[in-house]
Design brief:
The protein has about 525 residues and is an alpha/beta fold. Helices cover about 35% and strands about 10% of the residues. The chain has 19 helices and 12 strands.
Length: about 525
């Protein structure tokens, strides 16, 4: 069978409960898992057409910051299904967002130094970089960005970057405020302090102070039908609830290039951050609690998005050749700007092939848990769906599968990108983004932090969500919110291409050898200060 490598070995530090797979998990291509559910006709119109819960990918994080939430995937969905005007979401405007927007920094340096920084300009560029970081820090810690704006009702996008399952279960405005410490104006550590809390309060400040996002969703569900729409007491207040959570229970392994399996305290806010990968049993215990809480939310349709294989994200680049013919894996993984020739396994940050295989295998078990929960709910007559985003990313994985036919499993086919993206030169792929004076050279699916999607990839996620909504027979409308859309609803990728700054106007200084990003990390410790990119 393809996708099997004979020389793969189990890593000694892998817990016994992790079932190490020699072949990748077959995706759940059918969101219903083959189980039909027949719902009674919807009476009236739900007060809230779309509500989302999740982490950075749902929040709208890009290039190291939460910034342009107007083009998060939930907002793209809202635009396409006719509820854009009423969809409530937080804003983080000013200085490229919070905590530190790599694209913003790069463009500021390019404006002054052009396509490349010469060696004699490095001291001045370093000074300018730290000066700009100081301004960003002041804006969010003491300036206009330090004031959180409230809305009179809870957000529809209830996602927060950095959140894992326990955060969704337990975080409230009260314990967020209690966790915030007094920032210091540190000359040498110029990064926004309490950044994650500040971003979270942009969502939580519009909720009751003791509520979790699950409580907020429950209250939105209790709103029932829109007045005058013909609803009654049976009308759910949420038509479609999408929950995309769990990646941060494993993401730290690649953002920190450190594998620390969960143990005692994994389920406590004060101690869970010491771990970078959740044991499958711990993930299952957390997720099952989540599902029980979700069942209390009055939503007609619920979509659970599973966990992507985070090891595909280009922040961890495979070094040298793969370990063998037909293998998915490289012997070591390090930062994308460290070349094969420069790499030193003793000195450079790294994780190994065996660790990456164990991480992927754990994710497969996470996704079995999610699928089993959806299966049980559908068998009980609930209209729940699984959206297999892991399978989508696997089918977009350039170095793992697209460029290595021998490694492809039998079920694998290349993901069919929309025509607008296939017409780009080069076609966007999953490698780390690079560009120069002549334009984009590679990548395009991941932003400059090597973890989070570009705008066009948020569009791909939005399309997958819309596909499931159509499978659920959700009525979708044009932007006027009144005119029904007929036939398959397709995301307007021409619009997203205009809005995607990395694609429409690539930075000129990101040459393929990654020197600029390597210099940024070396000068300002960007990766270390912003980890985890979660």
């Amino acid at each position: 069978m393809k996708g099997n490598a004979p020389k793969d070995r189990r890593s000694a530090d892998t817990p016994a409960e992790v079932i190490v797979n020699m072949a990748p998990r077959v995706p759940d291509f059918d969101p219903t898992l083959g189980i039909d559910v027949v719902l009674p006709p919807l009476k009236g119109t739900s007060a809230n057409k779309l509500v989302t819960i999740g982490d950075s990918v749902t929040h709208g994080f890009q290039s190291g910051a939460i910034f342009n939430t107007r083009i998060s995937w939930p907002k793209i969905v809202a635009w396409e299904i006719g509820c854009d005007a009423t969809f409530r979401f937080p804003l983080y405007e000013g200085f490229g967002g919070i905590p530190l927007n790599i694209e913003y920094l790069l463009r500021a340096l390019e404006h002054k130094y052009g396509d490349a920084i010469s060696w004699w300009e490095l001291p001045g560029a370093g000074f300018d970089l730290r000066s700009l970081m100081a301004q960003i820090e002041d804006y969010w810690e003491r300036g206009p960005g330090s004031t959180v704006k409230r809305t009179n009702r809870a957000m529809h996008n209830l996602a927060v970057y950095g959140w894992d399952i326990r955060d969704v279960l337990s975080r409230t405005a009260n314990n967020l405020q209690a966790a915030m410490h007094t920032p210091k104006d540190d000359v040498f550590a110029q990064v926004v302090e309490n950044a994650n809390i500040r971003a979270a309060l942009g969502v939580y400040s519009s909720m009751d102070p003791g509520d979790t996002v699950l409580d907020a969703a429950r209250k939105l569900g209790q709103e029932g039908a829109l007045p005058g729409s013909g609803g009654d007491a049976t009308t759910p207040g949420i038509e479609t609830l999408v929950v995309f959570i769990g990646a941060n229970n494993v993401l730290g392994s690649v953002t920190q290039l450190k594998v620390s399996w969960s143990a005692k305290g994994y389920d406590a806010l004060g101690s869970k951050d010491r771990y970078t990968v959740w044991c499958p049993s711990h993930f299952a215990a957390e997720y099952q609690q989540l599902v029980q809480r979700l069942k209390a939310v009055s939503a007609r349709h619920v979509i659970l998005v599973n966990v992507p294989h985070v090891t595909i994200a280009p922040i961890a680049r495979g070094v040298n050749r793969k370990v063998g013919a037909g293998s998915r894996y490289f012997p070591f993984y390090t930062r994308p700007w460290i070349t094969d020739e420069q790499f030193n396994e003793k000195d450079d940050p790294t994780i190994t092939e065996n660790q990456v295989r164990a991480i992927d295998s754990a994710v497969d078990q996470y996704n079995d848990t999610i699928a089993n929960e959806v299966r049980a709910c559908r068998q009980a007559g609930l209209d729940w769906y699984v959206l297999d985003i892991a399978g989508m990313l696997d089918r977009l994985a350039a170095r793992r599968y697209i460029n290595d036919a021998q490694a492809r499993p039998d079920w694998w086919t290349r993901y069919d990108l929309p025509a607008a993206l296939n017409q780009l030169d080069p076609v966007p792929d999953s490698r780390f983004f690079s560009s120069g004076p002549q334009g984009r050279e590679q990548g395009g699916l991941f932003s400059l932090d090597g973890i989070h999607p570009t705008t066009i990839t948020y569009g791909l996620i939005a399309q997958e969500v819309i596909n499931v909504m159509q499978r659920a027979k959700v009525a979708l409308y044009y932007n006027d919110g009144v005119t029904l859309r007929q036939g398959p609803v397709q995301v307007d990728f021409d619009r997203l291409l205009r809005l995607d700054s990395l694609i429409a106007h690539p930075p000129r200084s990101l040459s393929s050898d990654m020197k600029t990003l390597g210099w940024l990390d070396e000068t300002a410790d960007i990766i270390g200060k912003l980890n985890p990119f979660s």
